[in-house]
Amino acid sequence: MAEASEIGSSGEQKALAGVSGAVSRRGPFLIVGLGNPGLEYVWTPHNAGFMAIDRIAQQVGVEVHNRRCRATTATCRIAGRQVVLAKPETFMNLSGAAVAALVEEFEADPARDLLVIHDELDLVLGTFKIRERGSPAGHNGARSVTGALGAEEWLRLRIGVGLDLPPEAIAAGGGKRPGRDYLLSPMRKADLAVLDEVLDRVATATRRILEVGAAAAMNEFNRKDEKTGNRE
Predict the structure, then answer these.
(1) Pseudo-torsion of CA 182, 50, 95, 135, nearest 10°?
(2) Is the CA virtual torsion 177, 180, 183, 185 positive or negative?
């Protein structure tokens, strides 16, 4: 099992070392990225959640290869908090089974100890948004998580993978935007380059969620995407 790693200043670590036992008994924070296992899906838009977990793991120096609760996992520390990184092996449409198993295994409160990262067609590629609750809309993985947890009150970070198409391109497609075929097809190099930059910001946002809380992180990062013309 990979050793736990730490993101955060030495000052944060010293401060946390002095926290009372009540806080130290708090369980780990779960960060779950949604996607599909298998080499054919590695670079597809639908696997943006898996890519985010891999980027976070890379930055903290761990490998997500342990198997637990129907997911591959790694343990690390981010901003002084023990964190479990996870990528469900259940395929996207059954993601909730792994998320629920992780929540039960670690006795986590989904409303405060869970972050789910997934792709979002309604957000333009190059952007992301954080939400504390909400309906899954058309995302089958998010729908599975909501169904398995029996609640919509769980934190999610949605990575935009939608193409910013001109009206004539949409008209040429019969008025429909790219859907399932696009989500499950390998991304173009140019689009992967855009996503690569976003993944670094997603990793930063994840750390900020743990440092300052979801509401403050939303104010910090969601406002940066207000000018992108997202379709929400």
Answers:
(1) -70
(2) negative
What does pTM read for this prediction? Answer: 0.83
Q: Catalytic pick from 46, 65, 118, 139?
A: 46
Other CB atoms within 10 Å distance of the CB of residue 229 = 9
Q: 227, exposed or middle or buried, with CB in 10 Å at 0-12, 13-18, 19+?
A: exposed
Residue 197: count of CB within 10 angstroms of its CB: 10
Residue 189 carries which side chain, given as an amino acid letter?
A: K
* pLDDT tens-place string over residues 90-127: 999 999 999 999 999 999 999 999 999 999 998 999 99
Examine the residue annotation and report whether 46 is marked as an active-site residue of this protein. yes
CA distance 45 to 42: 9
